Request: fold
Amino acid sequence: MNIYDIPVSEVIARLDQSIRDRESCIYIANNDKPYAFIPDSFADNILLESNGVTGYRMHYDAEPGSGVVIAGENDLAFLVVRKFNGDSLSSYLLGNMATLLSSRFSNVAVDDNDILIGGNKVIGSAGNIINDMAIFMFIATFEDHTDLISRICPPRHGKTPSYISNSILTKQELKEHLIEWLQ
Reply:
């Protein structure tokens, strides 16, 4: 499986090309300022712009008022594209991430498509199937975006945003584990 470590601004075009070409691959999105993966239904680009956040529409949908995932320079944005074969890639990866986090933190839980530590959301994810290709996207937060998230994302299901402490698990460690789980 090819791995592309690219600027987030290139992800959409490359993702669309991978779907057309039916290419199984991993994208690791990088940026030097806050950005958001947004569902197809998101319409408030002015809200993002007024908060200095660039939005990237990521081929998934969500309930009204939800589905926006905020990331920054030090967070891990990871997308997997592969032929859909009926299994649940998102459950597999969320389960493995939760197991890894549980070995280093207490009170880790998978809640729908998120991972919580101590009841606080540290990983958000979304997935979709397009043209028989499964897409799984997640952002693991490694820096505090609480203020920014509170301005852009309405509270959902009582999930309070938080982040993974780099002194316990680094972005690089999580990235290496994810690549290993997908090989």
Q: What stands out?
A: The mean pLDDT is 89. The radius of gyration is 15 Å. The chain has five helices and eleven strands. Helices lie at 8-21, 45-50, 89-102, 146-152, 171-182.
